[in-house]
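New to this. Help decode the following:
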Amino acid sequence: MSEQEIQYTAKDLAASLEVTTSTLRRWAIALESAHYPFKRNSKGQRIYTEKDLTTLDELKRLLAEKRTFADAIQQLTGYDKLTEQPAKELEDPVLASNESEKVDSQVLNADELEKIVSHAVKKAVKKEREKLFKQLKKQMKKEMEKLKKKKA
């Protein structure tokens, strides 16, 4: 960081973005979990720069466009939290958002996502139930054979 680079406190940056400090903190934690590097002072507090202001302003814009929080974070950082791997190699988070605007992306609404998850859960439950029934049948067969041997 150069000597003349502008630095912001959380309070100042939150005011610039017109969000609360708790919202800023939540956004910063999410970005850090996706490997976005914030600089810190000797007390461990985040020091925000112009680059951070631009990134956070872009996050606010994406959220205003009704993007999901996770998608917006992934778009800015290029890091896919579900796979815990970089979604693609990107150097600049703002370039990442501009690049993704060019690509048609499928965004699921809550109902579609609920249907997909519900179907997957039902399928998994059915498979597990069948597995348990097979085990139970096998165990019952063994027990029946033991009973027959005792009677004989």
About this structure: The chain has a mean pLDDT of 80. The chain has two domains: 10-105, 108-152. The radius of gyration is 26 Å. The longest strand covers residues 39-40.
